[in-house]
Amino acid sequence: MSTPSTTAPPAPAGPRATPAPHLSLRSRLFRLEGVSAPYAYVAPFFLLFLAFGLFPLVYTMWISFHRYELGSQPEWTGLDNYTWLFSNPKFYNALLKTITIGVLSTVPQLLLAIGLAHLLNYRMRARNLFRVSMIMPYATSVAASTLVFAQIFGRDGGLANWLLSLVGLGGLDWRNGDLSAQIAIAVIVTWRWTGYNALIYLAGMQSISADLYEAAALDGANRWQQFLHVTLPGLRPTILFTVVVSTIGATQLFGEPLLFGGVNGGALNQYQTLGLFMYQQGWVFGSLGRAATVAWVTFLLIVVLVLVNTGLARWRDRDTEGARR
Amino acid sequence: MPIERTTERTAERTTARTRRSKALAAAATTLVGALLITSCSTASSGANGASASDGKTHLTVSLFGTFGYEEAGLFDEYQKQNPDVTIQYESTQGESTYWPALQTKLASGNGAADVQGIEVGRIADVVANQGDEWTDLKGTAAGEQVANYPTWKSAAATTEDGKVLAVGTDIGPMALCYRSDLLGQAGLPTDPAQLAAKMGSWDDYLALGREFKGKAAAGTAWTDSAGGLYNAIISTQEEIYYDASGKLVWNSNPAVKKAFDTSATAATEGLTAKLDQFNDPAWDKGFGGGAFATIACPSWMVGYIKGKAGDAGSGKWNITSLPGGAGGNWGGSYLGIPKSSKNTEAAAKLVKWLTDPEQQAKVFEVGGNFPSNTKAFDLVSGATDEYFQGAPIGKIFSDAAQSAPTQVLGPKDAVVKTSLVQSLLSVETNGVSPADAWQAASKDLANQIG
């Protein structure tokens, strides 16, 4: 259990221990390097972030205060785009659909993922094969998986309707229904991301000490009780992380609904998410200012959602801690 | 024991260090690679980089979808005829990605090719708003073509002060494609002339549809979609969404309302297969699977049908003129030369050659894009198509092209059309009443362009 420092003293202690006044150029450079190297190492990220993260963010805000049609000059209109957006029923529709599809996909996705991770955490044959295959859907392109699912959810001769007919239910027009289309899209999203989340949970589970399980087993806890009282509490930070990431993903949902049925998101915009709505404004109707407004409002929405998520988690933490005391 | 552990740890630490430095090296390589790629692409997309050291003129051509030039070997042929010219060609598959990208290049005055394609839906916008971004072709070689076009085709690309910003590559004269096997089973005439004789108007077309519906096999509708039917009816009109003075009149234009109502009737009576054109994968399958018996088809859709219905569909499809023998137009593109081009003269010569009758006829043979040059009409008028039971497609489309009206195009045409077609889809797939659907479109459009 000894630390390496007992056999070898920490290397940096040597030069630092020498008195300051007479430093050779070499050691000065050495110190300078020690001080500046971390900044140099992190600089590429922050430079790239400035160029591809912060600048577009600020520029998008600037554009959102303009009437800016594709192929013409921007023209300052102040908050016009925002009043247009907040008085537009299509925006609220897109917001609602984003939330409903988000809930429909995120909740089953995370529940399935945690269950799968729990199963994969057991000792079993070909465990690694199963673990690797979990990530396969994530590695598949959105286009490919969506096209396959569009066939599955086809009105005439689709697999989903065939399965329904086995239990005596009539054929559904998945694409054109309201809830049915949203469910179909949620299934695509769930299919793609469940394995990804499962692997994250698995990593989290493996950091939970085996001692805890042993102790719980000695106390007579069965596997379900172990899952409930050891795994779940130990996974809390991981769960928070996946919830935040999935929420952000759900808010930006774009590729799946687009490929499923075009930029309108259905005849009654049944599955027009905020992402589709923004794309439609910008690249179909050519109103870049309005698209920028949608982008900014979406961004703010994500920030609020993330704050709510972490706030809830902290509140729950405090709550349980209080209960323990 | 403790000594062993230490060596083990040092070993671990060294491998960790080498791994870290490897990762760093990899990151650096990626970064450098990325920079190289971007610099390369800016170099090559600075396509207007005029004639190089070899004394040749390098022309860049940037198009979308399938114009058929490459497919018909025209670029190679031109380079053979003009050894001092080399052509660099690229095509983006989707027009909706192609156009926004081109806009940013035009706005920055950098990166646009010497010759760029323009879809007909964009031409009104180009003429109205981008007069200073495109070369006036009037004085150039390409400008000579204008006299050879149907007036409506060249009028659409001419500004109010007479500048010609683009010349047409093709047009989309309309006809009616139908499954003669399905019509035969329902006891309707399968011969193109007899069928045409029964369709004096769009109302006759609907009446025929009702007759079809009574006898047809389950799962087969009269036509594919209300939106497609609407598009066909409206394509025969002169003024659609804008009047001649450029005012937005879609809401008060009786022709628009009539077309909307006719299509909505077809939808509510169950004459449509409820398939969203180009969006629903089942629409593609429907060409071969017999989901619908008739579809209004512009000339370029002939190739589309062959592709989707495949060999199994050969001999099942046939083609006749639109109800009432009306000539309509749906689609067709243009070629323009951005102001930023440094090879305007050479580019104009290429455009002239590509839009010559002989070349347009070759493109028609390969892909079905119908010539916009009236002198090419004669060259293609004798064309027949074995796939369509040997139908005289050349004559059908030539007739349709000649009787097509001079359409008034406007910058927001696409927005209005999208909204109306979407509303019609809600009538057929979601049971919205036609009146409510019209209201919804009105509200939507007031919000969008009002």
From TrEMBL, chain A:
User: How does the record say this protein sits in the membrane?
Assistant: Multi-pass membrane protein
Its predominant location is membrane
Name the PROSITE patterns on file: ABC_TM1
- Residue stretches in coiled coil: none
Q: Which GO terms describe its cellular component?
A: plasma membrane
A GO BP entry is:
transmembrane transport
Q: Which protein, by its recorded name, is this?
A: Cellobiose transport system permease protein
Q: Which organism is it from?
A: Kineococcus rhizosphaerae
TrEMBL record, chain B:
Superkingdom of source: Bacteria
Q: What Gene3D superfamilies is this protein classified in?
A: Periplasmic binding protein-like II
**Per the record, which residues fall in region Disordered?**
1-20
Source organism per UniProt: Kineococcus rhizosphaerae
State a single Pfam family of this protein.
SBP_bac_8
Q: What is the lineage of its organism?
A: Bacteria, Bacillati, Actinomycetota, Actinomycetes, Kineosporiales
Name of the protein this chain belongs to: Cellobiose transport system substrate-binding protein
Q: Composition bias, kind Basic and acidic residues: at what positions?
A: 1-15
